[in-house]
Amino acid sequence: xxxVFLIVIYKVVMPVLLKLVGVRIxxxxxxxxxxxxxxxxxxxxxxxxMALLASLPIRLLIKTHxxxxxxxxxxxxxxxxxxxxxxxxxxxxxxxxxxQLLEEKLKKGHSLILFPEGTRGKPGEILAFKSGxxxxxxxxxxxxxxxxxxxxxxxxxPKGSYLxxxxxxxxxxxxxxxxxxxxxxxxxxxxxxxxLDLRKREHL
Amino acid sequence: xxxxxxxxxxxxMIMVILGVLVxxxxxxxxxxxxxxxxxxxxxxxxxxxxxxxxxxxxxxxxVHPAISFIAFGLLSFAAFREISxxxxxxxxxxxxxxxxxxxxxxxxxxxxxxxxxxxxxxxxPVGMFMLIPFLLVLKGHTQDIAxxxxxxxxxxxxxxxxxxxxxxxxxxxxLPQFNAGGRGLLLxxxxxxxxxxxxxxxxxxxxxxxxxxxKISPNKTWEGFIGGLLSTIxxxxxxxxxTPFSEIQALGSGLLIACMGFVGDIIVSAIKRDFGLxxxxxxxxxxxxxxxxxxxxxxxxxxxxxxxxxxxxW
Lengths: 204, 314
Hints:
The complex is a heterodimer.
Chain A: H1 2-21, E1 23-26, E2 38-41, H2 46-55, H3 58-61, E3 64-69, H4 70-73, H5 77-87, E4 90-92, H6 99-107, E5 111-114, H7 132-139, E6 145-151, H8 153-156, E7 169-173, H9 184-198
Parallel strand pairs in A: 1-7, 2-5, 2-6, 3-4, 3-5
Antiparallel strand pairs in A: 6-7
Chain B: H1 2-6, H2 9-34, H3 38-62, H4 65-86, H5 95-102, H6 104-114, H7 117-139, H8 145-168, H9 181-207, H10 222-238, H11 247-275, H12 290-313
């Protein structure tokens, strides 16, 4: 049932809406041959999550979970229910052992979509990365990360706004990479550099 | 030749467009065989895009008029979205006002479809010219407000008001003794404007010496401009079967389209310079963004429309 919802939303409705609004997704081929991964992207807007889910191939859709904060999406029961049903999220609380839930998902062979900034930044700005991504990649060294640079979605639907306005935006998907760093800090810097490097990539 | 004359004007014009594209494709194909290089590769990419654009445009022009209006509406939408996105003048607080500006597009094309001439004329230069500054005032951010007040209506004029005149050509009342109708006029002005760009480019490459506006568009030369102008006037003369014009009027329309196409081209070039861009986007392969392609049309279309209007309907 949930799979049907997800396919209708992210493979039928969302591509049309994203096209109309002006979001372009480049290099979806990055998912080819990948079974499990952690998508890491900068974060300006709810549109980011929609676009990343829409970029996934159908076979990965049900097994890929955007990571969201329970402080925001878990506040009301109906909001948590909807974000689970329609966005396939894992909700984590920022205080207690938050990463345990994510590790369980990874152990089951599922993939994650993670915004290491922890919240939506102002358009064009990138906030300091939290260390969670480093901890996960260190604990699961066989799982690659897929860096994504997202530009322009902060104008479409910034934090605090409920009215989407069409503006051109681009989602640049990079190649799946295994982290080489050994310490958490090294891995975080590695991921951040991979994302920032995509900024300069020409449209494919 | 007899067969060609038996076709309707519109069918003849489609043959002409096909002929030009086949000619260009063959020419560049032979050129590549003889002397390959990056220059001919770029021309081939451009020609490929011309095939796509010409097919879309011709289909939109000959199918049911309602579909043509929707197609032009989408073109305006994409162009307005593009210029709002690359503009460094719009502030982030202007988002919700830009949302209202988008609503002018269905209204403008609705008026064009219904043939309501006065609402069509005043919606943007009178209506939106009041509404956008008023909404900006209600928002209350005065820092740089005058800039937003001028820039958003100008973007609407350049991408919506101007292009909607192409659609309105289809709503003009029929004239006696004139078979091609609005579709003929539409094919005429779009084909000549685009050919004028190609002519100016070609003459400029062949003979170009003296630059016209070096700081804005270094490839524009007097030789290219005048060569393009004469070629476009000649093309207008031969294609006058698409219009209700006399021979003199057809020559005049060629002159008008060539000059106004040039003006539109350098206006958009100057805007791009200001934004620090080479192209307005990368929607169309080899041609840059949508605005790069409709720059000449943005000025030539309304001028051609009122030329027809004053000669035939006034």
